[in-house]
Design brief:
four-stranded antiparallel beta sheet, alpha+beta, 10 helices, OMP_efflux, 4 strands, elongated, efflux transmembrane transporter activity, signal, single chain
């Protein structure tokens, strides 16, 4: 019994270790994007709504279900035959079937409206997918770049921390003043604050990825996308606005409004109800049969159907205006994103290619001078802290550049390899 329990415990431990190993496996960008699409309830809801509208379009082409009609007619309520069902010749038990006939043109236009709505939902689904891919790529890049910043911060903090033992020995030997140890500790604490903030940014990116994918993604793998340059020139990006999913969704809304106006344009075509019945009467009286027609009379068309049609035409014109407005908004959005990207790119290049190399050279010089006794510890600590600040500033500019690049890259959803 004990061996069986021990075996179960060991099995559970091994399963937990294997699960942890699987969860800790780094994720590539394509894997993360694919998982985000699979996990998205909003995308699933959009697909289901489009399927529902397609089904409604198929149903709209059919005639309404026939109706079974049955009952008793002409039951006396006064006189000697009061509430008698077999005394009065006009009393009859009646059964029949009624079918409503809607013109094929009206049914077809109703179906076309549902189909236009389905295409509009699919277009909105593409807008959802583009936004999801953008947000996921931004979170993935954020995790990759914040991990780089954290690694650099830890390295500089560790390097500064190793200085404490040397500095205490110097104080003991009388070659340094006691306040130098305090200065070192204060600088180290300030640098650890930077490390803590970098760790916070990593955790925030991991949390965002969990929100988007439902997976615990603690590390990334694979090459980073080439975010150091725009996906295309600004003119090409502006010309591509017509393919933006939100613009396409607005275009589909205009198509839906046109389909509704086309449907209301023939609303005055009358529907016809046809009823066939058989009536059984009491003994001594002949049974009867008959057929009845009911036809709509749109005699007030100018006050009803025409008004509805005019309203739908106005909504169609409104949808076209809305499409124009959305195109203009997205052109402005592209221009804004490009401006933000170029500014972040300039800051990143200046920090990483100009300021950071100078800071590192200065640190190397002060380190050599300090070791030879030509420089004091505070200057060395200040130089090391400046390198860390510049490293983090460059990383922040790089993250901003990558964030704007992803927003531009995923203006239009991309197909992923399955």
């Amino acid at each position: 019994m004990k061996q069986h329990t021990l075996g179960l415990w060991l099995g559970g431990v091994m399963f937990g270790l294997l699960s942890s190993a699987v969860q800790a496996e780094p994720w590539t960008l394509d894997q993360t994007l694919t998982e985000a699409q699979r996990y998205s309830a909003e995308l699933s809801a959009s697909r289901n709504e489009a399927q529902a509208l397609d089904a409604m379009a198929d149903s709209a082409t059919q005639l309404p279900d026939p109706k079974l009609k049955f009952g008793i007619e002409n039951v006396p309520v006064q006189g000697n035959n009061d509430r008698r069902l077999t005394r009065e010749g006009m009393t009859m038990q009646k059964i029949g079937i009624m079918q409503s006939y809607v013109s094929s043109e009206k049914r077809e236009r109703k179906a076309q409206t549902f189909q236009a709505q389905a295409r509009g939902v699919l277009a909105k689904g593409e807008a959802i997918r583009a936004a999801l891919q953008r947000d996921t790529a931004q979170a993935w890049l954020e995790l990759a770049l914040t991990q780089q910043a954290l690694k650099k911060a830890k390295a500089l903090v560790s390097e500064t921390g190793r200085q404490r033992g040397v500095q205490k020995a110097s104080v003991g030997a009388g070659s340094s003043t006691p306040d130098s140890v305090l200065a070192l500790q204060m600088t180290l604490s300030a640098m650890r604050d930077k490390e803590t903030l970098a760790q916070r940014d990593v955790q925030l990116a991991q949390s965002r990825l969990f929100q988007l994918t439902g997976q615990t993604i603690t590390d990334v793998s694979g090459p980073l996308p080439r975010y150091q340059r725009l996906p295309a020139d600004e003119k090409t990006l502006e010309e591509g606005i017509v393919q933006h999913p939100e613009v396409e969704a607005a275009r589909r809304e205009a198509d839906t409004a046109k389909a509704r106006s086309a449907q209301s344009a023939i609303a005055a075509i009358p529907d016809v109800d046809v009823e066939v019945f058989y009536a059984h009467r009491a003994e001594g009286y002949d049974d009867m049969a008959g057929v009845m027609f009911s036809v709509d009379l749109p005699i007030f068309q100018s006050k009803r159907q025409d008004k509805d049609y005019a309203a739908d035409v106005s909504r169609s014109m409104q949808a076209v205006d809305q499409l124009t407005l959305i195109k203009r908004e997205h052109i402005a959005q592209v221009q804004s994103l490009v401006a933000q990207y170029q500014a972040a790119q300039t800051l990143w290049q200046r920090q990483s290619e100009e300021i950071l190399p100078l800071q590192r050279q200065r640190l190397d010089v002060l380190t050599a001078q300090y070791r030879s006794g030509q420089s004091e510890l505070p200057a060395l600590l200040e130089a090391r802290r400046s390198v860390l600040d510049t490293e983090l500033a460059a990383n922040q500019a790089e993250r901003e550049m990558a964030r704007n690049w992803a927003a531009i890259q995923w203006l239009i959803p991309q197909e992923l390899a399955k």
